[in-house]
Amino acid sequence: MQPSDAKELTRREREIAAAYAGGASYRDIGTRLFIAPATVRTHIGTIYRKLGVSSKIALLRTLEHAGTAATLAVEEVRAVPGRRASIAIMPFQGACAQRGALAQGLVQDIIAGLAKLRAVRVTARGSVFTLAERGIADHEAGRLLGVDYLATGSVTGTKDRVSIAVQLVETRSGDILWAERFNFGGPELFEALDQIGLKIVGALASEIEISERNRALLNHPESLGAWASFHRGLWHMYRFTREDNDRAQALFREAADMDPTYARAHAGLSFTHFQNAFLLRPQDRQQEAERALKTAGLSLAADERDPTAHWAMGRALWLAGSDGGAVSELRTSVDLSPSFSMGHYALAFVTCQSGDAEAAVTASDHARELSPFDPLLFGMLGARAMALFRLGAFEGAADAAVSAASRPNAHVHIQVIAALCLAAANRLELARSYAAIVHRNAPGYRIDDFFTAFRFPLEVMTLYRKQADLIGL
């Protein structure tokens, strides 16, 4: 059958064909076109018969040859409310049979880890391995699979040492967005390999989120779908001002309205209410805490397997005064996805105040290992500082707090943590300089405002208050 036969499709069939070839699911397409997923399936069957094709790859090729450009498929997919970015993890190359087996096991772990995050669509292992076995080059495989991103890698080394090189490529432009090499070895080879896998998953997810966030900023606001609205909201959310938090809230609400099943949009809404209660509108703490809890519940109802939903619920429960419930939800989030750095950070945040301080240090360190350039890195370091303060390790607490306060998006509570930890370490001159920064940035801020935001045992509050008296807070 000639490629021009694609012109025989109706307008609705062309629209469905372009979206499906570009990676949208039956449910995504049905949501956008207000038809049942089963109806979409029937349309796909009709399209396959008209075009004489039997696979998504053949469909994409036929549409391209017929003049229905691949860019149309991408545009159609981006208009689908439930659209997610997609990635294929290509088989890693091994220098020998042993390294090849290790490489393919690692690829399977990465595929599974990304799937558990539920933030991007991950092409199944069988599809990518089939293309590789046919000798199709990675960049061509990415185009045929219709994915937005492609991860490739190699495993080399000696008997006792292994080197893993990984890179993330945007398929449309061919640009390398991220590349890293991991070297390890010794008797704990396979344990180290598990940790490397988690780091790769975290890095890939983080880099894709940054890319999608930046891309969403370039779209006209009126053209945003649920996915782009959510990522544009993330850009505002991480700026930690009232105006940006309000804008993020509006964008998350738009995303949730367009796709009520989008768990991360509801979780984002919950985060903005948490920020209001914790930092931006503490006078409305009770009302904002109730809203954070409600929207976290909507996130869980949308997808109980999404670690972000349990993360949002854990933070909301902490606001509501339920430390035990918060820890339970946050542990569920990291059990669902061990690569979920935000879950580990939130565990550190809760437990550094009144739980297991040593576990809080471990959780903070693990969160930073998984996402070393995270926009919430200041919070991870701040949690570490508060945990060390409770343990009496004041020098370490001061060092972590100063690192936290040096981050460009660190808010006033982080600056207060730095001032108090420095005072406890008897570095009073620097402590008073941070207190001056606090007074300049938030006139009228007092130690009681700090205790409104955080929740410590009485003896810890007493120790913090002693440091505040020393430096004029």
Report on the architecture of this protein.
It is a single chain. The longest helix has 30 residues, at 189-218. The chain has helices spanning 11-21, 26-33, 37-51, 56-65, 70-79, 97-117, 125-133, 138-145, 189-218, 226-237, 242-258, 263-280, 285-302, 307-319, 323-336, 341-354, 357-370, 377-390, 394-405, 412-424, 428-441, 447-453, 458-471, and strands at 86-89, 93-94, 121-122, 149-157, 161-170, 176-185. The termini are far apart. Strands 1, 2, 3, 4, 5 and 6 form a six-stranded mixed sheet that branches. The radius of gyration is 25 Å and the shape is globular. The chain has three domains: 3-79, Winged helix-like DNA-binding domain superfamily/Winged helix DNA-binding domain (Arc Repressor Mutant, subunit A); 86-216, Rossmann fold, CATH 3.40.50; 221-471, Tetratricopeptide repeat domain (Serine Threonine Protein Phosphatase 5, Tetratricopeptide repeat). Helix 13 (285-302) runs antiparallel to helix 14. The protein is of the alpha/beta class and 473 residues long. A hairpin with a 5-residue loop joins strand 5 (161-170) and strand 6. The chain is built from 23 helices and six strands.
